Amino acid sequence: MKEFIANNRERIFDELFSILRIPSISAKPEHKSDMKRCADRIKELLLEAGADEAGVYPSDGHPVVFGQKSIPNAEGTVLVYGHYDVQPVEPLEKWNSDPFEPEIHDDAIWCRGANDDKGQLFMHIKAFEFMLKTRQLRHNVKFIFEGEEEIGSPSLPKWVEKHKEELAADVVLVSDTTMISEKVPSINCGMRGLAYLQVTVTGPNKDLHSGHYGGAVATPINVLCDLISKMQDEDGRITIPGFYDDVVELSAEDRAQLARAPYDEKEYKEFLDVKALKGEKGYTTLERTGIRPSFDVCGIWGGYTGVGAKTVLPSVAYAKVSMRLVPNQESKKITQHLIM
After folding, report:
1. Which of these, 137, 219, 214, 120, lies nearest to 173 by C-alpha position?
2. What is the pTM of this model?
3. Which stretches in the chain have pLDDT values below 50?
4. What is the pLDDT of residues 302-333, one digit of tens each?
5. pLDDT tens digits for range 193-244
6. Are 87 and 25 in contact (CB under 8 A)?
7. Residue 266: what are its φ and ψ, rounded to 5°?
8. 156 CB-contact burial (10 Å; exposed 0-12 / middle 13-18 / buried 19+)
9. Phi, psi for residue 201 in degrees, rounded to 5
């Protein structure tokens, strides 16, 4: 494998960079054509790697890329999953380079999607190419790459149901997870689910001058911050009624098995550049990020945020909320608990 990489290094980087440069931001309608362009390029890469067939298929949203390779006397079928869409790049001022122009420094590729998930997706295509060219491939391989993972994959279930026969496999291989650390190769057995929504708080019928109305009306940003602060108690437990009703509580034996995973808290904090960790009382960091649900605010805004002062109370405030879910919790049900 190392010889293959060395002999094809320049080509491999060129191919990877060709998809990293495409701003396939699924959340923004103005990037619809980029989504199709990225899907088309991945189809080309699959065919060039040796797939028997590959195509770009429409869905109710962004297209799905599907390809496959069959071999004689296969020992089974592996289905490789990935996604080619990426998250928005804002705030741009936090970037030290163009988000869609790959740069290599600090032994890493810096570009939106280099990690999540174009890098992993591409890794599987190149591993497939290597195994095929060196006659080491012993399994049929299928690929499904979607374009809506970063927005919750709303169109994928319907597409999968329609194409379930083509997708039939013995095992699904996914590399869109994480590792305990860069020093510890890791196999994830599962990931938490998600309930995500935008909260809007509306107050007076127009923006108000703080000198005339400050202290007389409830301002939406204040109210929103107060609501958010009450979503968790002092022990880090989520206070939404019914939130924990369906949560699967792991046994002491399962928790002991999880605790065997190597974890260095000092290294963890240094990597994040934080002095302390915070979470639900009574659980370790690995448990908080693996077997326990969470409530977090991903964005909050309203009013004037430009340079200088503007003494105006906004009439509306907004927040985007992420709730990570564990086995038996259902996204729709949890969302209903929050908004009721």
Report:
1. 120
2. 0.77
3. none
4. 999 889 999 999 999 999 999 999 999 999 99
5. 999 999 999 999 999 999 999 999 999 999 999 999 999 999 999 999 999 9
6. yes
7. -60, -45
8. buried
9. -115, 120
Structure tokens at 124: 């599987």
CB distance 106 to 32 below 8 Å = no
Do the strands 140-146 and 208-209 form a parallel or antiparallel pair, or are they unpaired?
unpaired
Question: With b meaning 16 or more CB within 10 Å and e meaning fewer, what string describes 197-206?
Answer: eebebebbee
User: What does DSSP say about strands 193-202 and 316-325: parallel, antiparallel, or unpaired?
Assistant: antiparallel
* 222 burial type by CB count under 10 A (0-12 exposed, 13-18 middle, 19+ buried): middle
Angle (CA) 176 51 41, round 5°? 65
* CA nearest to 64, candidates 140, 158, 139: 158
Per the structure block, which two tokens stand in for 202? Answer: 């509306």
